[in-house]
Amino acid sequence: MEFGVLGPISAWSEGEAVPVGGPRQRCVLGALLVDVGKEVTVERLIDYLWDDDPPRTARSVIQVQISHLRRSFPDVIQTTAGGYLAKVDPSKVDLHRFRDLVARAQSSGDPAEAVVLWNSALSCWRGQPFSGTGSDHLWYSVCRPLIEERWAAVTAWAECAFSLHLYSEIITRLTPLVREDPLRERLHYLLIAALYRSGQRASALTEFHETRKHLAEELGVDPSPDVIELHERILKDADAGIVKPAISVDGGDLRPDSVSSDTGSISEERSPEIVPRNDLPRDIPDFTGRDHALQELLDIGRQDTGRSDVFVITGPGGAGKTTLAVHSAHQLVEHYPDGQLFVDLYGYTVDQKPLEAVAALGILLRAVGVEPDAIPDSVDERSALWRAMLAGKRVLVVLDNAYSLAQVSPLLSAAPGSLTLVTSRHDLAIVSGARYISLGMLDEESSLQLFSAMVGSDRVKQESEQAQSVARLCGGLPLAIRIVGGRMLSRPRWTFAHVDQRLREHQRRFRELRVDGQSVEAVFELSYQSLNEVQQRTFLYIGMMIGSSLDLHGATALLECEPPEADDLLQELVSVCLLEEPVVDVYRFHDLIGAYARQKALALLPKDDVEAARRRMSEHYLDMSQCAADFMGPRGHNYERVETTVSRYRKELATRAEAVAWFDVHQENLVHAVDFFASSGAGDESWQLADAIWRFYAFQGRTELLISIQEKALDISRAQDNERGSAITLIGLGISHCLAGRFELSIRLLTDALDIVTRIGDERGEVRAYGNLSMAYERIGRFHDALSCMWKVLEHAVSVADRELEVMQRTNIALIYQMLGDYPKAVEFCEIALRIQSDDQSDGGSDLLRILGEVKVATGDLDEGFRHLEQSLKTAHLVGSQAQELYARNGLAVALRESGDLDAAIDAHHAALEVGEASAQHSGDAEILNELGVTYARACRYEESRDSHVRALDLARERKERYAEGRALLGLGTLPPDTIDRELAIDHLTTAARIFADLGVPEADTAQAELHHLRGDA
């Protein structure tokens, strides 16, 4: 089997193409092939597939893609501790063949042999690498560097071919290539030279003029000095050939030698000599994290790109911009032999004005050996002299702490082969041709690694949980972590638990983050003082936002201004790295910057103004939640909604998808809005907001968050003797505990709610209470009680012609008939529900299709079963319901088992469990584990089957799920005698038969038959 990534992701077996699958499978396979034989983590695959916005089911999707790829390429993909790896001979992957041929060509001492190797290497390319995957992250992190490798190979081949006088081949290959990327000046040089050497002087001059025109139009610059000099030689040397470059076999930088021709000699002008020096500050020995950013810097720094490279490193104060720049510069010293220079531009320094460009140029010119008396006075003259001094040199310059573009622009080198690293708290987003690295915060793992490097890994391991807590309180800010680590080093008796306690006292947090002249608060203060008055006011009010993020429309409510004005203000804060924009029009603070902003706001803003602003923002959330809830399904209650102050600039929602997206962005903030209303005595607002958002949280599996919201609303409703609010939040709590698997508690809460709504005459409330009681009864095996509740709800739905509610109840009744083994009745209710279901009614559609699919599988119609179950999973994704998704995945797993594909079935069971784990949806765990146990037994993996059934049994007994308990006992009782003791198996089957008989389900006969068989009854 051979594989290709240097073009569309492809595979071949004995010369015949093998289907790879869709874009996601191609992306996953390609990522594994790039690092063949090495682990590729699941997190990295998720980044490749979804860039910065993965769905909650991302891990499950990855597992499915891996499962599909394993079917196509058996024994190729292996599971590792953190992800997967491709076990493939590197010579069977075009990328690794290409790199091997490149290495051999570079080390060859024979140009004739080398040019053949270069040709072979370039023949590995079939087009754009990884095309068809649709991954931006993959493009920037993998494809772009690969393309640069290809260009480097093309250049090396052309130089080698030039040394062998293969001018026709150079012209044939380079003519179309220089049109692909007209900024590759080295290739233009070689093409012009080859044209002239082959006697095509006019074509060579034409190529030069086209190159110069393109550079002028695109970049406003002239060709490089080498190309201009080549042009002049052609003009002067009308008959003879031009200078042949001296070729370096290792592909290093090449310059023409001076030679004589029949018409005269041509000498090369050289730039002034400079004195190499290293001005870099001391490297930090415990540099940690930033692996991706560091590798990106090193990859570019080690390449000969044929141009002057600029990297701008941005981020908030304390994020480690200077540390990264200095560390990477030390790693690159050998690649810039003509000097490594460092200048602090003092953009954010206490009692120090930013260094002006004229002064910075003076420092740089003196650093490269220009005598002080020879340094011009004006910025323009100094900048021109600086560029001239660097011409033809490989120099690395670090411009630290830059404040503005005007400060930086005159300092940038124009010399090909030079590298400039700029650090700034501003984005400096219009530096022409620059690459950008925006530093966020260290993740938890990197934070702990930094602590380990500073205070020792033993101290971190001994208090791993407390160390993680301290890392979170530091917010991943390297400066904060270094300050804490420094304090712990100087106080050996301090534990992480002690530091954690000190940092949790908010009034002293910033005092704790201060040591030896370093202070997190001082760093933030400098950024704050750099703002104008309007920006400062915006920063302070955003510091008092409800929750941890806000969108543009929430900002208009908080700031009381129009969206265009709010957008400008927010973007100004983003540009100075005081505010983050993780997705378009959604903003948040880094934890410590947010704490600083709140502290500053409470000290400077009038209390009444702050409360009014927070009230406006909370009312905005209530208004938007009510609007979004109307798209999520039938509202459980009729009540008069609280009037809110609605901005005329509010975001209008037009579809369910938009409503789900809005809830998804603001789900954490809505908890804080309920908290704000409750703490300010706004009881009606509290329970109405809690009621508006319950369905979204339920669909997303955010059960603990939902419980927290409902409990806060219930407390204020009870304190104000508000029966309606109490009843509605009791129902919400009952639903939440049912989803969390606490069924007995759910029944008690829902029964209390039913008493209240019956007493106050809330018919819609009664229907909702009965509907949710039926769900809890079903989970603990009280099927007839569940049916009784469902019939009450169905009768109400039919009487008021509520088709959506009727569909939902017919689906639920079909589920009970399925459990009772009455498949004809289950199909009948499903088909009626399908007939009356409207096109835009999709909430219950996934469950409806799943039940039909499971019944079809149970009755042997696998094709129809698969069709319904796959549509069920698609519908669950469409409505964003992870609860429905996990049951659909489990149903598909059973279908795969019955079709004989046991490996895929096991993968699908695990995918269902992972969805439940990721979303905290544990109500179906016992059911899924039981089915997984059956599948393991079918695959003769009996010990794993026993373990799954034991886990299911423990869960079922804990939650009093009698049906699941019976299924677990039945599964254990039917395992082979070498897996389970015979007497224990008899006990299990006896108990299972009794449970199933009590429930009235068909498994009673199965358990009884297995028991007779085990006992050897006649």
Give the arrangement of secondary structure elements.
Blueprint: E1 2-4, E2 10-13, E3 16-17, H1 23-34, E4 40-41, H2 42-50, H3 58-72, E5 77-79, E6 83-86, H4 94-107, H5 111-122, H6 136-163, H7 167-180, H8 185-197, H9 201-218, H10 225-236, E7 259-261, E8 264-266, H11 291-301, E9 309-314, H12 321-331, E10 340-344, H13 357-367, H14 379-390, E11 396-402, H15 405-408, E12 419-424, E13 435-438, H16 444-455, H17 457-462, H18 464-473, H19 478-490, H20 496-504, H21 509-512, E14 514-515, E15 518-519, H22 520-529, H23 533-543, E16 549-551, H24 552-559, H25 563-575, E17 580-583, E18 586-588, H26 591-604, H27 607-629, H28 656-679, H29 683-700, H30 703-719, H31 723-739, H32 743-760, H33 763-779, H34 783-799, H35 803-819, H36 823-836, H37 845-858, H38 862-879, H39 882-899, H40 902-919, H41 925-938, H42 942-959, H43 962-973, H44 982-999, H45 1003-1015
Parallel strand pairs: 9-12, 9-13, 10-11, 11-12
Antiparallel strand pairs: 1-2, 2-3, 4-6, 5-6, 7-8, 14-15, 16-18, 17-18
Helix pairs in contact: 1-3, 3-40, 4-5, 5-6, 6-7, 6-8, 7-8, 8-9, 8-10, 9-10, 11-12, 13-14, 16-18, 16-19, 18-20, 23-25, 23-26, 24-25, 24-27, 27-28, 27-29, 28-29, 28-30, 29-30, 29-31, 30-31, 31-32, 31-33, 32-33, 33-34, 34-35, 35-36, 35-37, 36-37, 37-38, 37-39, 38-39, 39-40, 39-41, 40-41, ...
